[in-house]
Amino acid sequence: MDRPRTLGELRATGYCPTSVKEEMRRNLVRKLLAREPLFPGILGYDDTVLPQLVNALLARHDLLVLGLRGQAKTRLLRQLASFLDEAIPIVAGSEINDDPLAPIGASSRARIAREGDDTPIEWVGRERRYQEKLATPDVTVADLFGEIDLIKHAEGRYLSDEATLHFGLVPRANRGIFCINELPDLAPKIQVALFNVLQERDLQVRGYAVRFPLDLCLVFSANPEDYTSRGRIVTPLKDRIGSVVRTHYPPTRELGIAITEANAWLRRDGTPVFVPHFMKEVLEETARRARTSPAVSAHSGVSVRLTIACMELLASNAERRALLLGEPLAVPRLSDLPAVAAGARGKLERSLEEDEEEDAIFEALAAEAVAAVFAEHARVADLAPVVEAFGPGRQLLVGDRLPSADCARALAELPALARAVSSLLARTVPDEEMRQAPAVQASALELLLEGLHRAGKLSKKRLAEGSAFGR
């Protein structure tokens, strides 16, 4: 697209300056009328979080997204850039994105006075108009707002001259969106420095008489202040933020599974990976139980990154087995669960009263999840023939290093178990061809055996090569 390249050409188009919040509101209204997706890829917030966000944007508010770890806060905020225009004009070379028809910087004003309609302009895309800063305790006022540039001063400029200033991140984000992640981590004095920007929409640097009427949408993310020991949001700052939007974890297991499926890397090169739905349910149920477990700190939460990382490791362990044994399909089993402990470490924060290690907590939660998922897909009374098939001394060995062909032989020898596996797969695996795959049947077999063990119907003995189930 041919765009004006000088101030005169821009004036000729009838261009009128508009504030960034009005710009975002205009584009949001257009998307709402056209029924366009507003936050693609964000699942589970359609009736809760997104209406609050939309209302805040329509009201032209600065906003704070408040929630526990792993609730897509940063992803939500980054998508706000989609409500900006495709590109806006600035005075060429402006450090603070000066509007050619309403410049606020002294250098831009001087250039326009000198060059008039021949002043060159540049076009800045929406991706450059979203700026983000992770709050850390070492962030200074100079980082965010600016500082005296002693080199410029040494070159002969007066300290009272605006040209001696080096602009910080906030003024450089002028006419755009500026995001501060983990706001409580900012030192209180830095939070206080944001007061004027939020309320009066201006900026002062080092007490100078230089004031910049900034055009910004300020957005923040934070964990609830009562849940963090690192810091807190000072009360006057919260008072100046227009809207506070609360996020949450997936309210249902199926929604959690959908989020994991959308984010986990399961399409591997080479050996295809198939994860039965009941294995996805086990992982998601483990995370859901962790969020309510007294062994896990409720103040920290349990991120959806736990299920994503564990799902990827679960698939990787199945992929490794398929590669080593030369099997055509990689299918996770319950015996692969110990391999996902690496993905849970660091994501389960123990409560103060809990002495158990993370691995032990995850194992206990996973065992509860297996029992719950088994109970939803099978009735112990209906599996009585399976239990009876395990006569005195009869054991069945399963493990993550055993080939799927071993499962096929066991099902041939135990018709009652074969029928139970077929019944389970008929309810959980829609594809008939996939239900016949030995690797899929091995996964279903392990769920039935482990479920019967959890119900007290079969014994389980841990061996070096796997686990032996019997009566």
Keywords:
alpha/beta; 42% helix; 21 helices; 471 residues; single chain; three-stranded antiparallel beta sheet; five-stranded parallel beta sheet
How would you explain this protein's 3D organization?
By secondary structure, the protein is an alpha/beta fold. Helices cover 42% and strands 13% of the residues. The radius of gyration is 30 Å and the shape is elongated. The N and C termini lie far apart (75 Å). The mean pLDDT is 90.
Helix/strand/pairing category: alpha/beta
Extended strand count: 14
Main sheet: strands, sense, barrel: 5 strands, parallel
Oligomer: single chain
Strand content: 5-15%
Q: Helical element count?
A: 21
Mean pLDDT: 90
Which shape, going by the Cα principal axes?
A: elongated
- Estimate percent helicity: 40-55%
Radius of gyration: 30 Å
Q: Which stretches are poorly predicted, pLDDT < 50 over at least 5 residues?
A: none
Distance between the termini: 75 Å
Strand order of the largest sheet: 4-7-10-1-11
Write the layout of secondary structure elements.
Blueprint: H1 7-12, H2 20-33, H3 49-58, E1 63-66, H4 73-78, E2 87-91, H5 106-115, E3 121-125, E4 130-134, H6 141-144, E5 146-148, H7 150-154, E6 165-167, H8 169-172, E7 176-181, H9 188-193, H10 195-199, E8 202-204, E9 211-213, E10 216-222, H11 235-240, E11 243-246, H12 253-263, H13 277-292, H14 304-325, H15 341-344, H16 358-377, H17 384-389, E12 395-398, H18 404-413, H19 415-428, H20 432-435, H21 438-454, E13 459-463, E14 466-470
Parallel strand pairs: 1-10, 1-11, 4-7, 7-10
Antiparallel strand pairs: 2-3, 5-6, 8-9, 12-14, 13-14
Helix pairs in contact: 12-13, 12-14, 13-14, 13-16, 16-21, 18-19, 18-21, 19-21
